[in-house]
């Protein structure tokens, strides 16, 4: 299952956005209002929970300075990645898009597609809070 957030523009440099997203604790600023838990485990990992959904542990998997950060599920039970693509549009203008890729059975995909789509859209729309 592949989902994309809308592209959002932020009046910050790509380097600023990359550094902000590279600091795991900043993800708390991006979380939706229905977040029931947010806990930084270490500099590369955090756990979050949304009301009505199981807690998810995300780990930084890969990064390309100023252009991309890839987070992935710490557990192999629900394999997925969340990729932030960062594209500089000017010295103080950056476009960001989040991509969610996961391998789920048809039933699971049907159940989580709506909530995950809304989740990544909220994360993207909150980028201006960084």
List keywords for this structure.
SRPBCC family protein, alpha+beta, 8 strands, globular
The CATH topology assignment is Alpha-D-Glucose-1,6-Bisphosphate, Chain A, domain 4
Total domains: 1
Strand portion: 35-45%
The radius of gyration over CA amounts to 14 Å
The end-to-end span amounts to: 28 Å
Q: How does the helix and strand content classify structurally?
A: alpha+beta
The parts where pLDDT drops under 50 for at least 5 residues are none
Helical fraction:
25-40%
Q: What is the makeup of the main sheet?
A: 8 strands, antiparallel
Question: Could you say which overall geometry the principal axes of the C-alpha atoms support?
Answer: globular
Please tell me the CATH architecture by its name: 2-Layer Sandwich
- The overall pLDDT average reads 95
Counted beta strands: 8
Number of H/I helices: 3
Highest-level CATH class: Alpha Beta
Element-level helix/strand string: EEHHEEEEEEH
CATH homologous superfamily, by name? Answer: START domain
Give an overview in words.
It is a single chain. This protein has 130 residues and is of the alpha+beta class. The chain has one domain (2-129): 2-Layer Sandwich (Alpha-D-Glucose-1,6-Bisphosphate, Chain A, domain 4). Helices cover 25% and strands 43% of the residues. It has three helices and eight strands, in the order ββααββββββα. Strands 1, 2, 3, 4, 5, 6, 7 and 8 form an eight-stranded antiparallel beta sheet that branches. Strand 4 (45-50) and strand 5 form a beta hairpin. The radius of gyration is 14 Å and the shape is globular. The model has no long low-confidence stretch (mean pLDDT 95).
């Amino acid at each position: 299952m592949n989902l994309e957030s809308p592209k959002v523009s932020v009046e910050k440099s790509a380097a600023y956005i990359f550094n902000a997203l590279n600091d795991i604790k900043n993800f708390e600023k991006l979380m939706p209002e229905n977040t029931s838990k947010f806990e930084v485990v270490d500099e590369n990992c955090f756990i979050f929970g949304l009301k009505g959904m199981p807690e998810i542990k995300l780990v930084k998997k890969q990064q390309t300075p100023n252009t991309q950060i890839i987070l992935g599920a710490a557990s192999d039970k629900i394999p997925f990645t969340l990729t932030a693509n960062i594209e500089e549009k000017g010295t103080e203008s950056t476009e960001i898009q989040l991509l969610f890729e996961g391998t789920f059975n048809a039933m699971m995909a049907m159940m989580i597609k709506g909530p995950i789509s809304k989740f990544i859209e909220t994360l993207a729309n909150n980028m201006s809070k960084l």
